[in-house]
Amino acid sequence: MSLFEIPLGPQHPALKEPIRFIFKLDGEIVVGAEPRLGYVHRGVEKLAETRTFIQDVYLAERICGICSAAHTTCFVQAVEELLGIEPPPRAKYIRLIVFELNRIQSHLLWLGILAYEMGFDTLFMYIWRDRERVLDVLEMITGNRVLYAINQIGGVRHDIDDKIAAYMRKALSYLRERTKYYKGIVERDPTINARAVEVGILKKRDAIALCAVGPTTRGSGVKFDIRADDPYAALDEVPFNVVVYDTEDVMARTLVRIDEILESISMIEYALDHMPSGDIRVRVPRVVPAGEAVSRVEAPRGELVYYVRSAGGEKPERVKVRTPTLANIPALCKMLEGAYVADIPVIVASIDPCLACMDRAIFVDVSKEKVWVWSERELRRYSLRWYRSREGVRRR
Amino acid sequence: MSVIKELLKNLFTKPITLKYPQERKPPAERFRGRVYVDYDKCIGCGLCARDCPASAIEMVVIEPEKGIRGRRPLIDLSRCIFCGQCELSCPRKAIKFIHEYELATSDKKSLLLIPPKPKGSQKP
Which of A44, A52, A55, A57 is the mutation pick for testing B, counting most B CBs within 10 A? Predict the structure, then answer.
């Protein structure tokens, strides 16, 4: 049988790194996936060199809207290392709380999108309704639903007072109940089981060899979490468990993220109880001494790395960012090998590359010299139809 | 089957969404909306313009006889990213972010916050 080639992409409006795939198909089965990156190179790293360190905090925040707390924490930590200063202990706790709230909202957003890709719109709506509670808490602490602007060089901008803490505790206990309920649905629901169990397999040795990060690698049984391996902010004082599942499929990655939400809720509650009092910010000089620093954090999607070099001025000489989605692309290609075309949306969504990955897919049937274009919606519809017509095939 | 139970329960509850122009959710206390400048407090130091990441602030001279102290910030809200750095940088707390968030307009000039002419100035 001749192989079909499906180019996919490159226009993905919601993805921070739009990507084009060429899938080689043998009938319904993907035998090879070839990625191509770099379609929205924005020149952020070069732009950072032309701005002062204070302005770069806001630039870093805008690299990703969903994990903006991760980007600023990482950048600010690198600059603080260059300056040789330590933020006050209370600031570290507030950083941790905002960071984990950010993780909760990112994982809930992702869970909703996964449900949507599976055609389970009811669950998608309920999850996104509950996500609003986290965003309300974040708005109360920082003043914004996204782009919090709370991390400053030398500390944080806003304090968490008793009123906010009380509201937060209420919202968190509500979220814990809801997350447990969603976990029950994900584990038991036949639709989700049919679409997620044994789909998108990433073997443990492949996850290690391809340097996958974040929930993608923890779903393959690799215990790798920057929060535990290289603690930052107040993480060395807050206890938590690294969530690992070893079934290596989309289901494992889903359960890792759901359990991480529950872990994050416990972490925030612990941090609220044990937060030291004191200042939240120290004054820092504008001129950063020459030197270089590397900072790593565990963003919702995985390990995020910042490298900052200063030549001794107000502006950095070099800023390098390695985002987790980039690290997961080789692993994604491995997962797609051997999968059905109808599973492509779910597998691509399972590494959490933001959303709208399937926009403007061009399908080429090489043997018939036929080219057609499918939008994300059509590909999703095709995948739903495909599953409906084969109902029961993969159900166990 | 638990989703169906949830579905039936939600048939009898109020929608979670608001009918926006009629119902408005009040923004949080720390919400950053339109920029408000107290030009009397301003000393014209220019730190806000220096720190603005979006180059939305330009210092304009309104009292040339006072030299550097006669400058006031001209803020272009169409460039503003509402990060709040100017509020932090200001040594006299002359800049505040107020709760007004409906800034859409068809007249771009209305988004310019132009400093007022000083009282008793000679210029028209």
Answer: A55
Distance in angstroms (rounded) separating the CA atoms of residues A61 and A73: 9
Token pair in block for residue A359: 């926009």
Residue A135 touches chain B, beta carbons under 8 Å: no
Task: Give the residue from A76, A118, A122, A180 with the most B CB atoms within 10 Å of its CB, the best one to mutate.
Answer: A122
B8 at A interface, C-beta within 8 A: no
Q: Which domains are delineated in chain A? A: 42-328 (1.10.645.10)
Q: ipTM of the assembly? A: 0.88
Q: Is the Cβ pair A55, B31 closer than 8 Å?
A: no
Query: Which distant-in-sequence residues (6+ apart) come within 8 Å of B2 by Cβ?
Result: A181, A184, A185, A188
pLDDT at A359 (0 to 100): 29
Q: Which domains does chain B have, with CATH numbers?
A: 28-113 (3.30.70.3270)
Closest residue by Cα to residue A103 from A252, A267, A274:
A267
Closest by CA position to A280, among listed A107, A90, A114 = A90
Contacts of B97 in chain A (CB under 8 A): 143
Amino acid at A136: D
Confidence check: pLDDT of A17 > 80? no
- The pTM (predicted TM-score) of the whole model is 0.87
